[in-house]
Amino acid sequence: MEQLTKTPLSYRDRITFEFAVYGTCVFLNSLLCLFFLLRFHLWHSFKPTICFVTFGTFILSLPLLALQIFLVINLWSRNEPQYTVAICTFVKCFTSATTSMAQVLPLPVAIYRYFLVVQNKKLSLLFVISTHFGICLMFLAIAILNFPLGISQVNDQCEKLIFSNVMEAVRISLTLGLNLFAVLINCVIWMFVRKYDKREVDIHRRRIQLTYSMLLQSMIPILVSIPLLVGSLDFYFGYTLPYEFTSRWYATTFLSPFLTPISSMLSLRVIRLEILEFFVKSRRVIIGGRKISSFINSKLGARPSSDYSSA
């Protein structure tokens, strides 16, 4: 454990590519967080749902982003960073855990909406946070178990580290399983709202819209992880895959920090209009003495209600 290891210069091109993809998506995610901070009425309506996933994804993306920045700076300075095997093992397993934590954020939201919509129980943001905290503990336990169950391996990020292929398979399977569970719950909510929800027409309409939005949101982490799951066939079962696939397409999973929140945001008309107005006002463009936002409002008509807190 106290033996020294290092990240070789041969890892530079790969980590640079990963950072270019991941860093861009985290930056775009930060703009979405800023958008909600500047639109407090949307934060109030969507804080247990879309806002929770948006801000949670940003926070949980920071450990891996910090690691990528550290490695990119050092390797492009032609410096091979050195650390103990224990530190390298912890950092790799911890960042893998936080990545999985971010990918399963739609699950506590789905559970929250199941109780709200199907069981008609009022719950707070604290319930969503507590549920996800319990999920995070499972991934942390998996990361820690790499130490007693892992064996010494050669790795591209570290020349030597302690790693358990079994625990990695458990992490990937748990991530996929929890995401599929979130999709299943959202499908149940969708069917319930369509068939049995008899609330006031406007609330019913917003519930259908938000349910569709949450279903789409829960599917994104699965879709972007498909290349990584296919790539694991090579790692665990020895199936030979084309180099172009294993060296590049696995990185689609790094698109999740941006695609997961933006998919749910753009599926709701009220947020689409707010985003459009946000960009128009930020540019302060005036045509014929009138702001473009006034033109947009005249074309799109009355703005839909943004109160989705009971949906």
DSSP summary, beta strand count? 6
Radius of gyration, in Å, reads 22 Å
Our count of helices gives: 12
Strand order of the largest sheet: 1-2
Intertermini distance: 52 Å
The structural class is mainly alpha
**Second-tier CATH architecture:** Up-down Bundle
CATH superfamily (homologous) name: Rhodopsin 7-helix transmembrane proteins
The largest pleated sheet is described as:
2 strands, antiparallel
Q: What would the CATH topology be?
A: Rhopdopsin 7-helix transmembrane proteins
Order of helices and strands: EHHHEHHHEEHHHHHEEH
Number of domains: 1
CATH class: Mainly Alpha
Q: Give the overall average pLDDT.
A: 85
**How much of the sequence is in beta strands?**
5-15%
> What does the overall shape look like?
globular
Estimated helix fraction:
over 70%
Descriptive account of the structure:
Keywords: Membrane, Transmembrane, Transmembrane helix. Strands 1-2 form a two-stranded antiparallel sheet. A two-stranded antiparallel sheet has the order 3-4. The longest helix has 37 residues. The protein has one domain: Up-down Bundle (Rhopdopsin 7-helix transmembrane proteins). The protein is built from twelve helices and six strands.
